[in-house]
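re: ur question from yesterday

yeah so i grabbed the chain u mentioned. its 139 aa long if i counted rite. heres the sequnce exactly as i have it in my notes:
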Amino acid sequence: MFDHCLYFNTAALARRLDREWALAYKPFGLTTPQGFMLRAVLARPGRLPSELADDLEIARPTATRALDALQEKGLIHRQVRSADGRQTAIAPTASAIEMGRGLNEASAEVSRRLKHVLGEAGFAETVLRVRDTRSALRA
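ran it thru and got these structure tokens back, copy pasting raw so excuse formatting
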């Protein structure tokens, strides 16, 4: 019925991919958004919540909720970065750093499975086309 609908097909794909990564991050006690947020924090510690939101292309309140959950789990802490106390940098805790390698390996395993199903070229082409479409619509 909606075979030619970009919204329907990308939303269905997003739900399917979310299930894949949810299974990968479940052993760590993280949801898919929390897993990707923590990986972003681990990749570049010290960023502001607004920078993380921009990098992940999510709304700032969504980023704040994910960061709050990670803080409750003891995986990040906030460091005051400005004299007036309004800017806080996000840093991983020792527990998060220990978890980082396993989190990346779990995510890499999902990518390996998808590459097996789609083929290396199909996987790369799909990622490139989705990224290009996202960039074009951002303008």
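noticed a couple things. The first strand starts at residue 76 and ends at 80. also Residues 94-118 form the longest helix (25 residues).
anyway ttyl
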